[in-house]
Amino acid sequence: MDTILDIAPLSVDKTGLPNTTFKGDVAVITGGGSNVGLGISRSLAALGAKVVIADINPETGLAAEKLINKENGADSALFVETDVSDELSMKAMAEKAFRTYEKVDILVNNAMDMRLGAQILKSTVYQMDRQYAISTRGALIGIQAFVPGMQRRRHGVVTYLSTAFRYPVGPSNYCAAKSATTSIMMSLASELGPVEQTGVSVFTFLPAGIGRPRPAPPPGQGPDFDLKFEMPGYGTFIPPEDCGAAMAYAISRAQEIHGSGVMINQVFRQMNWPYPQPETVPQADFERINEHVLSLMFAYMGPGFKDPKVPLRSINYSDNIGFPVQ
Description:
This protein starts with a helix and ends in a 6-residue tail after the last helix. Helix 3 (58-72) links the parallel strand 2 and strand 3 (77-81). The protein has helices at residues 2-5, 35-46, 58-72, 87-101, 125-153, 172-192, 195-198, 240-252, 264-270, 291-294, 317-320, and strands at 26-30, 50-55, 77-81, 106-109, 156-161, 200-206, 260-263. The chain folds into 2 domains: 2-285, NAD(P)-binding Rossmann-like Domain (Rossmann fold), CATH 3.40.50; 288-326, no CATH class. 42% of the residues are buried. The chain is globular. By secondary structure, the protein is of the alpha/beta class. Strands 3-2-1-4-5-6-7 form a 7-stranded parallel beta sheet, with helices on both faces. The longest helix is centred in the middle third of the chain and has 29 residues, at 125-153.
């Protein structure tokens, strides 16, 4: 089973969170049977949550269920074979989750297929459609299935694993679909309103460089790009178990970061994570983007006109709080 899942020991204890942090909560993790999704599923279960593993692969999904139940006790995990792009499949998964646990408090939209990633001029229409169906349609179906119940109970968290806006050379169709879903998440946060009134928190989480070093696939058997990561603090990929720990910590503070996007290293630094290579971690970060500019982000990319006809001002919160775009 361990060979099937490619796992390592959990690191969620390094978050400092008690193992009862999510006791009484039920979490659905799409794509929760392998890699990042499995790291999140295991970490949430270790902190007390019941987890529903919604995954299209029955082999890894069942293995993940058995592993989590072994680690945390019987009935800690439930695998439901699910194609997130299919509305009937998602509804069947939701019904089984409700029958088993009666509610869902945490929705982690994680499912995606990196193998379909391709550059814009090389992507087939099928690849683009499938990326969009898994990421964007899947997230929409999940949100509509579970958020109304969260609203009624005034308790819930919805999160999404985002990615870079673009790659210079890489899985551009993957980024395009992820960008659309990130927009859905930010709109959902605005539509729900202040978390103090609804009890439902929404945020996006950018994992960046998660996985394990492995040999390159034979020619023609992998995506048409090669991603090599030297992540700050690691010098290589970040293990899925560490990503799961970071996501669990972010969910524990979801009310605070409602309507925000956070990157894994921001979360690591927030909880004083013991990096393997701390000397490589940057000691500064970017400021937050003004909310008014964020909603018009696509209008503020790149260098723009070289001779703008109006004065320019900072887009950062620290300099521009409360000033609307004019």
